[in-house]
Amino acid sequence: MKKKTTIYDIAKRLNITAATVSRALNGNSKISEATRKLVSETAKEMNYEQNKLAQALKSGKSYNVGVIVPRIDSNFFASVIRGIEEELYPHGYHVIICQTHDQKTLETENINSLLNAQVDGVLMSISNAQNGNDDSFNALIKKNVPLIFFDRKKDIKGISSVTIDDFKGAYDATKHLIDQGYKRIAHLSNDRSILIFKNRYLGYKQAILDSGLEFDESLVIETHSKVLEGRKTMKKLLEMKHRPDAVFSSSDFTALGAIQEIKESGLRIPEDISVVGFSNEPFTRFMELSITSVDQSPIEMGKLAAQVFLEEVNNDKRVKSEKQVVLTPELIIRKSSLRTPITDKV
Amino acid sequence: MKKKTTIYDIAKRLNITAATVSRALNGNSKISEATRKLVSETAKEMNYEQNKLAQALKSGKSYNVGVIVPRIDSNFFASVIRGIEEELYPHGYHVIICQTHDQKTLETENINSLLNAQVDGVLMSISNAQNGNDDSFNALIKKNVPLIFFDRKKDIKGISSVTIDDFKGAYDATKHLIDQGYKRIAHLSNDRSILIFKNRYLGYKQAILDSGLEFDESLVIETHSKVLEGRKTMKKLLEMKHRPDAVFSSSDFTALGAIQEIKESGLRIPEDISVVGFSNEPFTRFMELSITSVDQSPIEMGKLAAQVFLEEVNNDKRVKSEKQVVLTPELIIRKSSLRTPITDKV
DNA sequence: AATTTTTATGTAATCGATTGCAGATTTTAT
DNA sequence: ATAAAATCTGCAATCGATTACATAAAAATT
């Protein structure tokens, strides 16, 4: 491996000091235009490249940020990450992506690894199954490493977050079903200790109450965001004495499972039962029977989270303020819930 | 931010030198059992954590590796990355993920950024649209930064790779279609300057030639791995005077598009036309009409790529050997290509 | 012309951990 | 008891870049 040229090499060549080279290269202090030019030309000539590690050690900044998500193979998270990258790259930051696979232990491990890797901040969406133990978050907070939640947040004093208005998303989706004439609307929920799922549940409930329909708690089932879980849960619902005629799912994946189960049972969608999902995953659009879903503008969410991070990291750490950004979701109506057939825009 | 404790702090407390502390902590040289114990206890007590940046500077290793993929929101790449992570984490490495979105410029930028971030190696799947310009790869090679290709590789002397036998995957898939009695099998190809697509094409062609069927080049169309592209291309095929009765697609996404187009045209799958994809993306299994596809064991691929990296990075750089690992693909037969209906295992 | 101000550069410490060499201490051998 | 060997620990340089402070040189001021 050819040795890299350092500022000392440049200094020696020009018979000046490394300090001067450093200053010239950073354009900072008062360096004569002549030497500045000379240095930068020589630097280019010698193929100089700044050693980020040395700089990181000196400045205490690694220019790495950690991003922790439950998983990356969902379009939603992949898109949020993309948004984060787009916003952070121009500022010289790199993104280290970690997956929790919804396991608290992995989440904790990830945080420790990132801390260990000297990241300048952590942007994350918490995993399910929070056991009330906030030790790992506290580790971040204690070290004063900026922490920003996106989508799946935890209410911690002083911690900023970027989320969507899940209540409204759920409310709109449910309202849409009611407007279509459905009367017995079930809800495939998820771990409601996670705020987003709690809010989706509350939005759903409120829409039903507001419409004058009867709210039936037995139509709410908690499950996991997996296709097969959706099937299983739907099966239970179909076996009820008085089965639902519509389903609002807090996840597109469970919605998909529900649809499979419904079709298998011989019922028609949306004539007999209607289904609405959440997240607007690409497959909801591509299915032959396209699925109505709630869009969460993930790229935007990522960008905003990144912006909040940049603000915090560049803050003169006088006042530490907490920022809560809330995006507005958009209901995308497709075949799976539309009784009056219209030309479906794919 | 509370200042972190360093080995100097520990040294001061114990009235010894930082050197001793360092050695004691690293368990390495000859340090008396007594001090070793004392040091590690004090370290724990003082909440000592090694500063990775300093270590990185000293050792010249960052313990970061870059992973470059066209995109992360496909199950295939996400899974490869997961395999890489699983293999690398236990060795203290972190993974920096970059996406090229199949743009050569982004690919080059990513490589430079990673180089700049002092990564210890780069594992990558090249983007489409290679313009024959290998400058960015050469930059890596010149700096002696280990480079390992997975899946989409480029033949460069001395560079290791982990791929699957795309020829065989395509051959098996096509053979399966022939065995099912299809006679006019089209192929949705992709940029054939990329080896995997070239090999899939060749496997397809060979299977047809071996079977004695006529090989018709007009049934091969080059497109992009996107659902909508699949639709467009399928449309063209269906408009042919003598339309195909089966399609082997080099991508699950184009296969999906093709299926949509076929259904819209009123033809039945697999009775009238059959479709086979490539990659075994989860949706191929979840579709109501499940799609036959070729599994590439992505997690395994990721692990192997990581292992090759570890070997190279730990190599005493005497002999630089090139390693070509080739995995065997597996054809997963589902409804979209099975004329004799059987119970489909979902 | 002498003094002050400005400008440009050098000196040396610093970030935190590692390591070759040397010196000190203990153990073993003669 | 003395020399030789083995064991442990300290000294100081090193990785590469940054920066407060000092100083030299040039420009401006009186």
From TrEMBL, chains A, B:
Keywords: DNA-binding, Transcription, Transcription regulation. GO terms for molecular function: DNA-binding transcription factor activity; transcription cis-regulatory region binding. Residues 5-59 form the HTH lacI-type domain. InterPro entries: HTH_LacI (IPR000843), Lambda_DNA-bd_dom_sf (IPR010982), Peripla_BP/Lac1_sug-bd_dom (IPR001761), Peripla_BP_I (IPR028082). It comes from Aestuariibaculum suncheonense. CDD domains: HTH_LacI (cd01392), PBP1_LacI_sugar_binding-like (cd06267). The lineage of its organism: Bacteria, Pseudomonadati, Bacteroidota, Flavobacteriia, Flavobacteriales. This is LacI family DNA-binding transcriptional regulator. It holds the Pfam family Peripla_BP_1.
